[in-house]
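Re: the 423-residue chain
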Amino acid sequence: MSEAARLSPEAARGGADAAPLAGKTVAVVHAAWHSCGSYQVNVSQIAAYKRLGARVLSIAMMDDIGRRPPHGGRWAGYLAATRDIGADRRFYSSAPLSALASRFLIDGWWRLIHGDQATWLIEIAKRAPLPEGFEGERIDLVHANHYFTLPFVETLRRGRRIPIVLETQDIQARQYVLRNKGGFFIPPYATYDDMLKIELEWMRRADLCAHLNEEEHEDFQKLLPKMRHKLIYPAVAEAPRARGREIVIVASDNYANYMSLRWFLQEVVPRGGAARVSIYGNIDGGLRKRDAALYEAHRALFKGRVDDIGAIYANAGCVLLPTVEGHGLSIKAVEALSCGAPLVATPLAFRGMRVDPRRLGNVALAENSAEFALAWRAAQARADAGETPLWELSDTRRLYEESFSPQAYARALATAVATLGIM
């Protein structure tokens, strides 16, 4: 019997009356992050499980040592920024300050100063206690995000056999190598292979590995051939339909975005002529920290972080995706797809998608800085002529609805979870 055949007809179609997980409790375990792509993935997971009829718990684990949550450290900022998470009940945990009196300094911190972020996060998760008030909860399924939450998941399961779906969100060892380029560590340095070995060792404890882009799906199938794998594109909350004329870049502060924006400012802007762009997001702080001179030279382009990013997309006439660095699916690229605006993009912006961007009618694909600047200038000319996007006829909008919408995600998730025998 096929996976889809195990579901009711309504569940297989993902209809409004589909509730294959009615009466079940699902714990979505995730890092206590916000204002980033991973947080939006967590929100969409919770919404999808609720769409499938489950009662959903959000369990946030802080990737640091601190006071009992939700007090102290980064908890206040996290709570303020995550009111829209949508779970039926929320829990919090972090490794306590008392961990510093244990072997943590040897097992975790000593490895971290050599760049071994993989071990550091595992050791934190091992010491994160059962969340306050969690004792009466009984879980039917755990949806864990990132391998490093799995020691914490073992604490939550309390010896019970509960199926685990692990959503990888890229090979984390790749991200650590990128981060280490901008940090200060001492030799001998942790290598990609060192950190990948730890990642794979913990991943083997999951029952199903869900991958949110084609590249990591293929990579993990080769790295862990005996495990079950499923490609499930994430649901990304749709942006408002683009109806404006402003040309925009939206970027949060991470190293890949910094490298991409640096390329845009150094290589594309000098060729842009009279073309204009507004850059939104907290990437301004990241650029200022890493290259103050470059930031000052282009300070006027930056608009900073905004509370309502949807308003930015609604006023967009074109979205620029100058992506030259990064791994995994680009959440901001999917957001841009959803608004239906014309895009000027490098091929790497579409990484991890089973799509040929050259076939998307409202995408100008640029292989180099000269092509990017040419397409940007053309977009500016359309804006100056008063043209606005026709989002309802947009190829990118249709791609979003078919592959990245909440409905598409819930359908794919239901099919995957059906193989675990909890429905």
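The radius of gyration is 22 Å.
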